[in-house]
Automatic annotation (TrEMBL):
One of its GO terms (molecular function) is DNA-binding transcription factor activity. It holds the Pfam family STAT_alpha. It is found in: Cytoplasm; Nucleus. It comes from Scophthalmus maximus. This is Signal transducer and activator of transcription. PROSITE patterns: SH2.
Length: 788
């Protein structure tokens, strides 16, 4: 259905909006109605930029109006004949600037579309639950309507100023004529004076009305500036903070730029209106002239609103970051970083004329040992429209680096608050001057707080500080944040953790995985929403393995070696040993799952369930694989070729079904190398190990309740396999393990062999680098390597 036909079917409230839209001569509703199909099929957007196309469309429009006029002549519709003839005369004023007509018609079509969208939204709200995204869209549409209203008022004010000037010119002409004429008849002279007095009174009323309209216009403009600066810009800044730590938020500035520019253009027009009033008063003035009384206050008000808008329009579009950094806002001395600033008020005439200068914060906290830095490199650049894909006014600094200043004396009033290097926050500042049409305003923008390190080993801790600050603080100037850092609620904390996986692998954490992490931190709770995590618990405990070190170790391992498997959901990952046992015991023999180690940093392991001869269930687990293992053999090949050798039994792979019941080859098959037993990463992957002892988890029966839930962990406990090259029993502090009653006394003295069955990858000189052993059920003291 054509857009105009859809508009005709709208409810009364939206038809009223349509009537208000066409309550002007720019595009008469009659023309829109009778030429609806033709108007909607033209490329007005291209014509707004293409003068030749605009000329063609204007000529066709005039021809179509002639056709309509002929039709109404035949129908003897006198009124429509008259209107169409008048409309054609009005459109002929676009002959010199046909692109203006294209822009006008395009604007009306966009406004019509907004009315349709608003009507559709209202209908959805009546029948469906309104989602937050829809509400946000509605808010944006409401702001667009206000912007359109502001532009309409500006057009009306422009017309008012023209009428005011014409009135004044009429009075001035008659007054000057009256002065030059020598009228002897007193009656005639008095009549002329009455006429002049009437003109002055009308002029006075018109000036008062114009000043009142300007006040209302500034009221509307102030409201829009408040919305843009205190709501839209603040929300964008918060979204930018969250995207810096992995959130999938939209931080495109194009829409904000459009709104900021629209309001700025209108405010400059208001200043022009006020200048015009001053010019008119210079020509004609009288006693109690309202312009003389009110114009100075209006001028100050307009300038104040405009300056407030301009000062907020200079922002950091892309926060400082190093090319190979862990994330933005972590910078290293003597290493190049980049940052991009943007001016949201876009005036093409300012292209390449505004110089931006980079510097460090001017006021630093008075803290003992607090470091200070200088910015080096290309620290001055002009705002331009070349370096932005969307044509925005940007200054893209790509070759900056930091150098630490030599430390001086502590000085008076220095605090002894202990802050580590990675808890020091610094801000990078950007200065420029906006100069246009007689207005000069100094603008300043600043980055989000950055952490500056001098060694790559500090990067993990620095990134933890960036995560914590941007998760909790919206005060981007609070450089003393870590002097008294607040705690994070579990909903905040869990969301931030999920963002880390989402940004690194395109797959975040699900509720079950977050619940395991919450249980690890807080133990069993009815509701984790009221639980909080302290900064010291997250990253500052006096132990080498804080929560963040553990979590980040997993994240790095997944990103480096397991991204595809994680993204497809093949790795359960965050699941406690107790939960693992309760899940596997309900499944068929050979079912296995993949989870992250709770004690080995950056470790992943797999556990499987098997049925004993007595029909009972055992869960067995291998010691965790780390990057040292995965860098040589892909994890899917380990799963594919893993086998257990027991004397008298045929070697078999106990891993048959990925939890819950996906056949192993269906889950991992597409990742296998072409040939079974082929070379993987040019590494040896066949190993034999023997053990003199065997331990295992107790058989599980259906009535076993212990260990089914999540197990509380206050520290980084779980598997505690030592990584020193010797194989030992896994520490069983969390769960007691007993000898399997099905094993006879002689069994522990027999050898148990495990291998990855790749016979083509082993020669006599092969060096054993990876240990594929089973634990905590199995241990390998006094290990001897057997020949193939």
């Amino acid at each position: 259905m054509a857009q105009w036909d859809r508009l005709g079917q709208l409810p009364a409230a939206f038809k009223q909006q349509l009537l208000e839209l066409y309550d002007r001569d720019s595009l008469p509703m009659d023309v829109r109605h009778y030429l609806a199909v033709w108007i909607e099929n033209q490329e007005w957007l291209r014509a707004a930029r293409d003068h030749d196309l605009a000329v063609v469309l204007l000529q066709v429009l005039l021809e179509n109006l002639d056709i309509q006029h002929s039709r109404f002549v035949q129908e003897e519709s006198f009124l429509l004949q008259h209107n169409i003839r008048r409309y054609k005369q009005n459109f002929q004023r676009y002959l010199d600037e046909p692109c203006d007509l294209a822009r006008t018609i395009l604007w009306f079509l966009e406004k019509e579309n907004e009315i349709l969208m608003s009507a559709d939204l209202t209908e959805q709200v009546q029948f469906l639950q309104v989602e937050p995204e829809i509400m946000e869209t509605s808010s944006k549409q409401d702001l667009e309507r206000k912007m359109a209203g502001l532009r309409n008022e500006m057009q009306c004010m422009e017309h008012t100023m023209i009428c005011l000037e014409e009135q004044q010119d009429e009075f001035d002409f008659k007054y000057q004529t009256h002065k030059m004429e020598a009228v002897g008849d007193e009656a005639v002279k008095n009549d002329q004076i009455k006429v002049l007095q009437g003109l002055v009174n009308r002029l006075d009323e018109c000036r008062k009305s114009t000043l009142s309209d300007l006040n209302k216009l500034l009221d509307r403009t102030e409201d829009l500036v408040d919305i843009l600066v205190k709501k839209e810009l603040v929300e964008w800044q918060r979204r930018q903070q969250k995207t810096c730590i992995g959130a999938p938020d939209d931080v495109c500035l194009d829409q904000l730029e459009k709104w900021f520019t629209c309001v700025a253009v209108c405010l400059f027009q208001v200043r022009e209106f006020l200048s015009k009033l001053e010019e008119l008063v210079g020509k004609v003035s009288y006693e109690n002239d309202p312009v003389k009384a009110q114009k100075p206050a209006l001028q100050r008000r307009a300038d104040t609103v405009l300056k407030d808008l301009l000062k907020s329009s200079f922002v950091v579009e892309t926060q400082p970051s190093m090319p190979q950094g862990k994330g933005p806002l972590v910078l290293r001395t003597n290493v190049q970083f980049s940052v991009k600033t943007r001016l949201l008020v876009k005036f093409p005439e300012l292209n390449h004329s505004m110089k931006v200068v980079v510097s460090m914060e001017r006021e630093t906290p008075h803290i003992k040992g607090y470091r200070r830095f200088n910015v080096l490199g290309t620290i001055t650049k002009a705002l331009n429209m070349v370096e932005s894909q969307s044509g925005g006014m940007v200054a893209d600094f790509r070759h900056l680096n930091l150098k630490e200043q030599k430390s001086g004396g502590s000085g008076k009033g220095v605090s002894d608050i202990p802050l580590s290097v990675t808890e020091e926050l610094h801000v990078i500042c950007f200065d420029t001057v906006f100069e246009l049409k007689g207005l000069s305003v100094g603008l300043q923008a600043s980055s989000l707080p950055v952490v500056i390190i001098s060694n790559s080993s500090q990067q993990q801790s620095a990134w933890a500080s960036i995560l914590w600050f941007n998760m909790l603080s919206q005060d981007t100037k609070d450089l003393m944040f870590f002097a008294n850092s607040p705690a994070a609620t579990w909903p905040q904390f869990g969301e931030m953790l999920s963002w880390q996986f989402l940004s690194a692998t395109k797959r975040g954490l699900n509720d079950a995985q977050l619940e395991m992490i919450a249980h690890r931190l807080f133990g069993n709770q009815m509701n984790y929403d009221t639980c909080t995590v302290a900064w010291s618990k997250f990253s500052k405990e006096n132990t080498p393995d804080t929560f963040w070190v553990w979590f980040d170790g997993i994240l790095v391992m997944v990103k480096t070696f397991l991204e595809d498997l994680w993204r497809e959901g093949l790795i359960m990952g965050f699941v406690s040993k107790g939960k693992e046992k309760s899940l596997l015991k309900k499944k068929q023999s050979g079912t296995f799952l993949l989870r992250f180690s709770e004690s080995v940093i950056g470790g992943i392991t797999f556990s499987w369930v098997e049925t004993t001869g007595a029909g009972q269930l055992n869960v067995k687990t291998v010691q965790p694989f780390t990057k040292d293992d995965l860098i040589q053999i892909p994890f899917h090949e380990i799963i594919r070729n893993f086998q257990i050798f027991e004397p008298g039994n045929i070697p078999e792979n106990p891993l048959l079904y990925l939890y819950p019941n996906i056949p192993k080859d269906k889950a991992f098959g597409k990742y296998y190398s072409e040939k079974s037993g082929g070379t993987v990463n040019n590494c040896v992957s066949k190993y034999f190990f023997c053990s003199k002892t065997l331990e295992h988890r107790p058989p599980m029966s259906s009535d076993v309740a212990q260990g089914e839930g999540l197990e509380p962990m206050n520290g980084l406990c779980g598997e505690s396999a030592e990584q020193n090259g010797n194989l030992h029993l896994l520490d069983s502090q969390m769960e007691p393990y007993h000898l399997d009653p099905m094993l006879s006394d002689s069994v522990p003295h027999e050898d148990l062999l495990l291998c990855l069955n790749n016979p083509n990858l082993l020669d006599d000189s092969s060096q054993i680098n990876i240990l594929f052993n089973v634990g905590p059920e199995f241990s390998f003291p006094d290990l001897d390597c057997l020949p193939p």
